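User: As part of a screening pipeline, I want to sanity-check one entry by hand. Below is the sequence and the SMILES for S-adenosylmethionine. Please return the complex as C-alpha coordinates so I can compare it with the automated output.
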Amino acid sequence: MQVVQNLQNLANDFRQYIYDWHHKVETREPVPLEKLHIESENLTPGLLYDPTSRSRFRRIIRALRRPSLEGFTFIDLGCGKGRVLLLASLYPFKKIIGVEFSPELAHTAEMNLNTYRPTSEQKCKNTSVVCLDAAHYKLPPGPLLIYMYNPFQDQVMKSILSEIKRVLDAGTQDLYVAYLIPKLSQLLKNSSFLVPVHETPVFSIFKGQRTR
Ligand SMILES: C[S@@+](CC[C@H](N)C(=O)[O-])C[C@H]1O[C@@H](n2cnc3c(N)ncnc32)[C@H](O)[C@@H]1O
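Assistant: Here is the complex for your manual check:
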Protein backbone atom coordinates (compact mmCIF):
# COMPACT_ATOMS: atom_id res chain seq x y z
CA MET A 1 0.00 0.00 0.00
CA GLN A 2 2.81 2.39 0.98
CA VAL A 3 4.60 1.56 -2.30
CA VAL A 4 1.48 2.50 -4.29
CA GLN A 5 1.21 5.77 -2.35
CA ASN A 6 4.89 6.57 -2.97
CA LEU A 7 4.49 5.89 -6.69
CA GLN A 8 1.40 8.13 -6.82
CA ASN A 9 3.30 10.94 -5.06
CA LEU A 10 6.19 10.55 -7.48
CA ALA A 11 3.87 10.70 -10.50
CA ASN A 12 2.19 13.79 -9.02
CA ASP A 13 5.55 15.54 -8.44
CA PHE A 14 6.50 14.77 -12.01
CA ARG A 15 3.25 16.22 -13.37
CA GLN A 16 3.79 19.41 -11.32
CA TYR A 17 7.35 19.68 -12.63
CA ILE A 18 6.19 19.26 -16.24
CA TYR A 19 3.45 21.86 -15.73
CA ASP A 20 5.98 24.49 -14.61
CA TRP A 21 8.54 23.60 -17.26
CA HIS A 22 5.98 23.63 -20.06
CA HIS A 23 4.44 26.96 -19.02
CA LYS A 24 7.69 28.72 -18.01
CA VAL A 25 6.54 29.39 -14.44
CA GLU A 26 7.51 28.38 -10.89
CA THR A 27 4.47 27.23 -8.91
CA ARG A 28 5.46 23.72 -7.85
CA GLU A 29 7.57 23.99 -4.71
CA PRO A 30 5.57 24.02 -1.43
CA VAL A 31 6.73 26.68 1.10
CA PRO A 32 6.07 26.65 4.87
CA LEU A 33 4.84 30.14 5.73
CA GLU A 34 7.26 30.39 8.69
CA LYS A 35 10.03 30.76 6.10
CA LEU A 36 8.48 33.93 4.68
CA HIS A 37 8.26 37.51 5.94
CA ILE A 38 4.57 37.96 6.62
CA GLU A 39 3.21 40.66 8.89
CA SER A 40 -0.26 39.61 9.90
CA GLU A 41 -2.09 38.77 13.09
CA ASN A 42 -3.51 35.85 11.10
CA LEU A 43 -0.21 34.09 10.49
CA THR A 44 -0.56 30.87 12.49
CA PRO A 45 1.94 27.99 12.78
CA GLY A 46 1.66 25.11 10.32
CA LEU A 47 0.31 27.05 7.34
CA LEU A 48 1.82 26.19 3.96
CA TYR A 49 1.84 27.33 0.36
CA ASP A 50 0.88 24.32 -1.73
CA PRO A 51 -0.49 24.53 -5.29
CA THR A 52 -3.80 23.14 -6.55
CA SER A 53 -3.25 20.49 -9.23
CA ARG A 54 -4.62 21.07 -12.72
CA SER A 55 -6.80 17.94 -12.54
CA ARG A 56 -8.43 19.04 -9.27
CA PHE A 57 -9.09 22.50 -10.62
CA ARG A 58 -10.74 21.08 -13.75
CA ARG A 59 -12.94 18.82 -11.59
CA ILE A 60 -14.04 21.83 -9.53
CA ILE A 61 -14.92 23.88 -12.62
CA ARG A 62 -16.89 20.94 -14.06
CA ALA A 63 -18.76 20.50 -10.78
CA LEU A 64 -19.98 24.10 -10.98
CA ARG A 65 -22.21 23.00 -13.88
CA ARG A 66 -22.31 26.51 -15.29
CA PRO A 67 -22.81 26.66 -19.05
CA SER A 68 -20.63 29.76 -19.13
CA LEU A 69 -18.31 31.65 -16.81
CA GLU A 70 -18.36 34.78 -18.94
CA GLY A 71 -19.04 37.84 -16.83
CA PHE A 72 -17.75 36.19 -13.63
CA THR A 73 -14.84 37.61 -11.63
CA PHE A 74 -12.66 34.81 -10.27
CA ILE A 75 -10.99 35.49 -6.91
CA ASP A 76 -8.42 33.19 -5.31
CA LEU A 77 -8.23 34.09 -1.61
CA GLY A 78 -4.72 32.99 -0.63
CA CYS A 79 -3.34 32.70 -4.16
CA GLY A 80 0.25 31.81 -3.23
CA LYS A 81 2.43 31.60 -6.35
CA GLY A 82 -0.62 31.94 -8.58
CA ARG A 83 -1.08 28.43 -10.00
CA VAL A 84 -4.86 28.74 -9.75
CA LEU A 85 -4.80 32.17 -11.41
CA LEU A 86 -2.98 30.59 -14.35
CA LEU A 87 -5.43 27.67 -14.50
CA ALA A 88 -8.39 30.08 -14.29
CA SER A 89 -6.98 32.14 -17.18
CA LEU A 90 -7.89 29.25 -19.53
CA TYR A 91 -11.58 30.08 -18.93
CA PRO A 92 -13.43 33.18 -20.18
CA PHE A 93 -13.67 35.02 -16.84
CA LYS A 94 -14.21 38.78 -16.94
CA LYS A 95 -11.39 39.29 -14.44
CA ILE A 96 -9.08 37.15 -12.29
CA ILE A 97 -7.80 38.42 -8.91
CA GLY A 98 -5.36 36.78 -6.51
CA VAL A 99 -5.18 37.88 -2.87
CA GLU A 100 -2.07 36.86 -0.94
CA PHE A 101 -0.61 38.15 2.34
CA SER A 102 2.99 37.06 1.69
CA PRO A 103 4.81 39.76 -0.36
CA GLU A 104 7.27 37.10 -1.64
CA LEU A 105 4.52 34.77 -2.86
CA ALA A 106 2.47 37.65 -4.31
CA HIS A 107 5.57 38.78 -6.24
CA THR A 108 6.13 35.25 -7.59
CA ALA A 109 2.46 35.09 -8.64
CA GLU A 110 2.88 38.34 -10.60
CA MET A 111 6.05 37.05 -12.25
CA ASN A 112 4.28 33.81 -13.20
CA LEU A 113 1.39 35.73 -14.76
CA ASN A 114 3.95 37.63 -16.84
CA THR A 115 6.05 34.66 -17.95
CA TYR A 116 3.23 32.15 -18.59
CA ARG A 117 3.31 30.65 -22.09
CA PRO A 118 1.62 30.02 -24.43
CA THR A 119 -0.55 33.11 -23.92
CA SER A 120 -2.61 32.05 -26.94
CA GLU A 121 -4.40 29.43 -24.80
CA GLN A 122 -5.52 32.04 -22.23
CA LYS A 123 -9.14 33.18 -22.48
CA CYS A 124 -8.78 35.82 -19.75
CA LYS A 125 -5.75 38.10 -19.55
CA ASN A 126 -7.33 40.61 -17.20
CA THR A 127 -5.44 39.44 -14.11
CA SER A 128 -4.10 41.08 -10.96
CA VAL A 129 -2.56 40.19 -7.62
CA VAL A 130 -3.32 42.08 -4.41
CA CYS A 131 -0.86 41.72 -1.54
CA LEU A 132 -3.20 41.82 1.46
CA ASP A 133 -4.53 39.75 4.31
CA ALA A 134 -7.72 38.15 2.97
CA ALA A 135 -9.46 39.14 6.22
CA HIS A 136 -9.28 42.78 5.02
CA TYR A 137 -10.12 42.24 1.35
CA LYS A 138 -13.24 43.98 -0.01
CA LEU A 139 -14.97 41.86 -2.63
CA PRO A 140 -15.97 43.53 -5.92
CA PRO A 141 -19.59 43.28 -7.11
CA GLY A 142 -20.61 40.00 -8.78
CA PRO A 143 -21.01 37.65 -10.51
CA LEU A 144 -18.24 36.07 -8.43
CA LEU A 145 -16.48 32.75 -8.14
CA ILE A 146 -14.47 32.76 -4.90
CA TYR A 147 -11.82 30.07 -4.62
CA MET A 148 -10.07 28.94 -1.42
CA TYR A 149 -7.64 26.09 -0.96
CA ASN A 150 -7.62 25.47 2.76
CA PRO A 151 -5.80 28.69 3.50
CA PHE A 152 -7.38 30.05 6.67
CA GLN A 153 -8.15 29.60 10.33
CA ASP A 154 -11.69 30.35 11.50
CA GLN A 155 -11.18 34.05 12.41
CA VAL A 156 -10.17 34.87 8.83
CA MET A 157 -12.98 32.74 7.44
CA LYS A 158 -15.50 34.61 9.61
CA SER A 159 -14.30 37.96 8.17
CA ILE A 160 -14.61 36.57 4.64
CA LEU A 161 -18.12 35.31 5.38
CA SER A 162 -19.20 38.80 6.55
CA GLU A 163 -17.79 40.23 3.34
CA ILE A 164 -19.68 37.63 1.25
CA LYS A 165 -22.88 38.53 3.10
CA ARG A 166 -22.25 42.22 2.41
CA VAL A 167 -21.97 41.75 -1.38
CA LEU A 168 -24.99 39.43 -1.46
CA ASP A 169 -27.07 41.95 0.45
CA ALA A 170 -25.82 44.68 -1.88
CA GLY A 171 -27.43 42.81 -4.78
CA THR A 172 -24.82 40.37 -6.14
CA GLN A 173 -26.89 37.57 -7.64
CA ASP A 174 -24.49 34.94 -8.90
CA LEU A 175 -21.92 34.04 -6.26
CA TYR A 176 -20.20 30.69 -5.82
CA VAL A 177 -17.56 29.58 -3.32
CA ALA A 178 -15.27 26.70 -4.36
CA TYR A 179 -13.52 25.38 -1.25
CA LEU A 180 -10.73 22.81 -1.59
CA ILE A 181 -9.94 20.68 1.52
CA PRO A 182 -12.99 22.18 3.22
CA LYS A 183 -11.99 21.91 6.88
CA LEU A 184 -14.22 24.81 7.93
CA SER A 185 -17.16 23.73 5.80
CA GLN A 186 -19.48 23.75 8.82
CA LEU A 187 -18.93 27.50 9.29
CA LEU A 188 -20.12 28.10 5.72
CA LYS A 189 -23.07 25.74 6.16
CA ASN A 190 -24.10 27.49 9.37
CA SER A 191 -24.44 30.77 7.51
CA SER A 192 -27.91 31.54 6.21
CA PHE A 193 -26.52 32.75 2.87
CA LEU A 194 -24.32 29.90 1.56
CA VAL A 195 -25.93 26.65 0.42
CA PRO A 196 -23.83 23.59 -0.45
CA VAL A 197 -24.54 22.52 -4.04
CA HIS A 198 -21.78 19.94 -4.50
CA GLU A 199 -19.82 18.11 -1.80
CA THR A 200 -16.99 15.60 -2.00
CA PRO A 201 -14.40 14.75 0.70
CA VAL A 202 -11.88 16.85 -1.29
CA PHE A 203 -13.86 19.95 -2.20
CA SER A 204 -17.22 21.66 -1.70
CA ILE A 205 -19.09 24.18 -3.77
CA PHE A 206 -21.50 26.64 -2.20
CA LYS A 207 -23.96 29.00 -3.87
CA GLY A 208 -24.74 32.34 -2.33
CA GLN A 209 -28.27 33.55 -1.67
CA ARG A 210 -29.63 36.81 -0.33
CA THR A 211 -30.91 36.84 3.21
CA ARG A 212 -33.26 39.79 2.85
C1 LIG B 1 -2.61 26.00 0.33
S1 LIG B 1 -1.99 27.51 -0.41
C2 LIG B 1 -3.04 27.62 -1.85
C3 LIG B 1 -2.42 28.44 -2.96
C4 LIG B 1 -3.32 28.63 -4.19
N1 LIG B 1 -4.63 29.12 -3.82
C5 LIG B 1 -3.49 27.35 -4.95
O1 LIG B 1 -4.53 26.70 -4.75
O2 LIG B 1 -2.61 26.97 -5.74
C6 LIG B 1 -2.71 28.72 0.73
C7 LIG B 1 -2.21 30.15 0.51
O3 LIG B 1 -2.99 31.03 1.31
C8 LIG B 1 -2.15 32.07 1.78
N2 LIG B 1 -2.80 32.65 2.99
C9 LIG B 1 -3.00 32.05 4.18
N3 LIG B 1 -3.63 32.90 5.03
C10 LIG B 1 -3.84 34.05 4.34
C11 LIG B 1 -4.47 35.28 4.65
N4 LIG B 1 -4.99 35.51 5.87
N5 LIG B 1 -4.53 36.24 3.70
C12 LIG B 1 -4.02 36.02 2.46
N6 LIG B 1 -3.38 34.88 2.11
C13 LIG B 1 -3.31 33.90 3.04
C14 LIG B 1 -0.84 31.37 2.06
O4 LIG B 1 0.26 32.27 2.10
C15 LIG B 1 -0.77 30.39 0.88
O5 LIG B 1 -0.09 30.97 -0.20
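Points to compare against the pipeline: The longest helix spans residues 2-23. The domain at 30-208 is CATH 3.40.50.150 (Rossmann fold).
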